[in-house]
Write a structure and sequence with these properties.
Chain lengths: 112, 114
């Protein structure tokens, strides 16, 4: 597609449930990033993929968070046993490295 | 470690004014610098990308400059409109990916009064 697509755009889930967020990057973009933005806060780096591998997982907040990328394309971010502090906007970006980053519209996650 | 600072943190001006948003960074070894706009609860929209070899980029009423040696960039908005109200983020890309690949400032929250 023309841009980075994220789904769902909004997700409300009960505390303790698992959620899966999807990111479809721009075709041919080798690098993919996940960021989190809590209300009124800056962007928090979560994980970075180069192709299908994730050389930098340093930003994942806990072992409840995991991510994968298949075929050098779609990525999913999974949060297990969600907690209220997981409520945030989750943003995905892709880049052909060394050039500009293109962000998706984000997934607004609300844990109730 | 790269640090990006944006000044002012917030700005409120009447419609029609020209304004300048400032961004400074501590490490001049960058690939490029990107200005984004973020509307409340939304994702980031790329406004302008300046490669490290460039001095400025223009798009419509927006002009961004880059002085890599002094670690500064400015975003100039001409003839501001209420629709320009948003948070403007500056981000520097050092290349190489990872947590430090792209470093953001905390943004300037801009309000254009009709």
């Amino acid at each position: 597609g023309a841009g980075v697509s994220q789904s769902p755009s909004n997700k409300v889930t009960e505390k303790g449930k698992d959620v899966e967020l999807r990111c479809d990057p721009i075709s041919g973009h080798t690098a993919l990033y996940w960021y989190r933005q809590s209300l009124g806060q800056g962007l928090e780096f979560l994980i970075y993929f180069q192709g299908n591998s994730a050389p930098d997982k340093s930003g994942l907040p806990s072992d409840r968070f995991s991510a994968e990328r298949t075929g050098g394309s779609v990525s999913t971010l999974t949060i297990q046993r969600t907690q209220q502090e997981d409520s945030a906007v989750y943003l995905c970006a892709s880049t052909p490295e060394g050039y500009g980053y293109t962000f998706g519209s984000g997934t607004r996650l609300t844990v109730v | 470690k790269q640090e990006v600072t944006q000044i002012p943190a917030a700005l409120s001006v009447p419609e029609g004014e020209n304004l300048v948003l400032n961004c400074s960074f501590t490490d001049s070894a960058i690939y490029n610098l990107q200005w984004f706009r973020q509307d409340p609860g939304k994702g980031l929209t790329s406004l302008l990308l300046i490669q490290s070899s460039q001095r400025e980029q223009t798009s419509g009423r927006l002009n961004a400059s880059l002085d890599k040696s002094s670690g500064r960039s400015t975003l100039y908005i001409a003839a501001s409109q209420p629709g320009d109200s948003a948070t403007y983020l500056c981000a520097v890309n050092r290349g190489g990916g990872g947590a430090d690949g792209l470093t953001f400032g905390k943004g300037t929250h801009l309000i254009i009064q009709p």
